[in-house]
Automatic annotation (TrEMBL):
Pfam families for the chain: PIN
Keywords: Hydrolase, Magnesium, Metal-binding, Nuclease, Toxin, Toxin-antitoxin system
Origin species: uncultured Acetobacteraceae bacterium
An example molecular function term from Gene Ontology annotations: toxin activity
EC assignment: 3.1.-.-
Highest taxon listed in the record's lineage: Bacteria
Cofactor: Mg(2+)
Classification via HAMAP family: VapC_Nob1
Residues binding Mg(2+), per UniProt: D7, D104
Function field: Toxic component of a toxin-antitoxin (TA) system. An RNase.
Protein name: Ribonuclease VapC
Family stated for the protein in its record: Belongs to the PINc/VapC protein family.
Domain PIN: 5-129
Length: 139
C-alpha cells in the first residue's frame, strides 16, 4: 500500500532548489522511495506545468524539464485510474465544501477514498484534509 497521496507541491519542492519546503520534501520523497505513493490522474500535467513555469521564470536552466521529470518517473508513484470518473461527483463536493480548486479537491478525494494520508504544502488543502479527518503526512 502506498505511503500517501502525493501533491504536486511536494514534488516541485523536491525538484526546485529555491522552494521553501525543500528539506521536508526530501523527507517525504524518501518515504515515496520506501513505500510508494499514489497521485490523481492530472498530477503529471500539474507537475510538468510547474517545471515549465520555473523554466520560463529562469528559476531552473532552460531545457532541464525532461531530466527533472525523469527523476520523478523513476519513483514508485502510481497514477490513480479513477480520477476522471470522480471529477464530476465526489471531488466537486469537496471543492465546494472547502473552497478548493477541483484539481486540489482531486487529491483530497483520492486520500479519502483510499484511506491514505495526504502529502501537500498547500495550506488550504492541508486544512481541508484535516477537516475531512485525513492525516497530513509530515505532521
Amino acid at each position: 500500500m502506498p505511503a500517501f497521496v502525493l501533491d504536486a507541491s511536494v514534488a516541485l519542492a523536491w525538484m526546485l532548489p529555491d522552494e521553501a519546503h525543500a528539506a521536508e520534501a526530501r523527507r517525504l520523497i524518501e518515504a515515496v522511495v520506501e513505500e510508494g505513493a499514489v497521485v490523481p490522474g492530472h498530477w503529471r500535467l500539474e507537475v510538468g506545468n510547474g517545471v515549465l513555469m520555473a523554466e520560463r521564470r529562469r528559476r531552473v536552466p532552460q531545457g532541464t524539464m525532461a531530466a527533472m521529470l525523469g527523476r520523478l518517473a523513476a519513483l514508485p508513484i502510481a497514477l490513480d485510474p479513477e480520477t476522471a470518473a470522480r471529477a464530476w461527483d465526489a471531488a466537486p463536493t469537496l471543492a465546494r465544501r472547502h473552497g478548493l480548486s477541483l484539481y486540489d479537491a482531486a487529491y483530497l478525494e483520492l486520500a479519502v477514498r483510499e484511506g491514505l494520508a495526504l502529502a501537500s504544502f498547500d495550506a488550504s488543502l492541508r486544512r481541508a484534509a484535516m477537516a475531512e479527518q485525513v492525516p497530513v503526512a509530515g505532521e
